[in-house]
Amino acid sequence: xxxxxxxxxxxxxxxxxxxxxxxxxxxxxxxxxxxxxxxxxxxxxxxxxxxxxxxxxxxxxxxxxxxxxxxxxxxxxxxxxxxxxxxxxxxxxxxxxxxxxxxxxxxxxxxxxxxxxxxxxxxxxxxxxxxxxxxxxxxxxxxxxxxxxxxxxxxxxxxxxxxxxxxxxxxxxxxxxxxxxxxxxxxxxxxxxxxxxxxxxxxxxxxxxxxxxxxxxxxxxxxxxxxxxxxxxxxxxxxxxxxxxxxxxxxxxxxxxxxxxxxxxxxxxxxxxxxxxxxxxxxxxxxxxxxxxxxxxxxxxxxxxxxxxxxxxxxxxxxxxxxxxxxxxxxxxxxxxxxxxxxxxxxxxxxxxxxxxxxxxxxxxxxxxxxxxxxxx
Length: 377
Fold this sequence. Notes:
Blueprint: H1 3-18, H2 21-28, H3 31-34, H4 51-72, H5 79-95, H6 102-114, H7 127-138, H8 170-182, H9 188-202, H10 235-245, H11 249-256, E1 263-264, E2 273-274, H12 285-292, E3 295-297, E4 306-308, E5 315-316, H13 318-321, H14 327-338, H15 340-355
Helix pairs in contact: 1-4, 4-5, 6-9, 7-9, 8-9, 11-14, 12-14, 14-15
């Protein structure tokens, strides 16, 4: 039995048994009010033979999904069905073109860009912490169980919000609530990943292909602790974490290049300091410094980390340092240190892949990712 059929049958029985007919008529009248975005969708192409029946059937199916979702989502036993209903409903909206346009998402991007700078936060920008939010909300994916990833935005819930690797990300989530209030139609998963794309591009990085279609899940969808990297570990740990997501050694190193941005905080990760001298500009400096500076173990009361011998102001994590020690990893570190264009190209593809982990193909609004404009373009 299909997901739609599984939801439709009990939903139909319960709805007619418990809901007044007037309420049912209201729930069926969803097409005139379903779209409330900032721009209108282009008209649908002329229907092919027999397509009208399918279109009206799909819209009716979406209405039934709404009824089923209402009936099921209020009980613990119905949470799984509710998640399936949301996914099926998103797929129907994609098929019937009842989705926001690229221009709608460009407006969200521009709004995020407008709030990036803040002289009272870290080095004057929320950009690095927004990149971290996008990465941590996506990097929980497990390709074997097909759980985790960016689809459900489960960091909104405990205990995932309290996982050690997510310490401090309440700052990023809080900043983006202002954007969510202005554009309530966007899902948290789309908002968080789009914020990461915006931050990379606005801080001088490459264009990141991105597409919307994620749905918001429930606390039951939250992932267990331990799926994100432990910075105190070595190369075997890195491979276990990233291979589980479906990445190879080259992609592991490419993603590590994001450490050109931001800094560590003792009250969050326990580590302290920036990786580069320009922590709000996206460059290949992480690789240059890792390869060419002399790194020594820092003598302090915190966890093991390295500092540059010359100034003592920069730091590297143990998981960073192994990239220059492991033979397979090191060859990519050298390539990216010597060629920033190569790094930008590989990072763009790999970060885009990361942000799509865990999202069913039929939920995507567009078959090919978009490239959104920078705020000043």
